[in-house]
């Protein structure tokens, strides 16, 4: 009987090691309308990578799980920190777990009724994202923020549900840290 070597994760860097790694980079040009300061957004190069996602290849089927890592770069658009687009799941009842690996930031959790919860993300933090909750990672640090994630492969991503109004809180840079600003 042969012994195989499974994929692995480097908890210090948040990087996955496997032969068939699925990778996607999201550039600033794909995030139009996400940041509050449109003039600051337009002043930055569109090819600036804001975040990357790495995933193990998985079959999308009932009962299967995805495993991936989101890497959000350090930076700002105006005074607003780099962040992921954020989403509900297409299968909105599906939950997810995030695990902080590298860096520091925030996880914005927004229920369908608009209520918001914010959690600190740091190496070793564990975050349960229940069904019916939109979620977004925000990098508030000076280096990359990486968070591991496990979610049902059937969950999907629904970005359109937040397109018109977005999240009800923004994370702005402030002397020595950040401040949360409610949006109208």
TrEMBL record:
It catalyses: alpha-D-glucose 6-phosphate = beta-D-fructose 6-phosphate. Its EC number is 5.3.1.9. GO terms for molecular function: glucose-6-phosphate isomerase activity. Pfam families: GPI. InterPro entries: G6P_isomerase_prok, RmlC-like_jellyroll, RmlC_Cupin_sf. Residues 29-177 form the Glucose-6-phosphate isomerase prokaryote domain. Gene3D superfamilies: Jelly Rolls. GO terms for cellular component: cytoplasm. Keywords: Gluconeogenesis, Glycolysis, Isomerase. Coiled coil: none annotated. Pathway: Carbohydrate degradation; glycolysis; D-glyceraldehyde 3-phosphate and glycerone phosphate from D-glucose: step 2/4. It is an enzyme of class 5 (isomerase). This is glucose-6-phosphate isomerase. It comes from Photobacterium chitinilyticum.
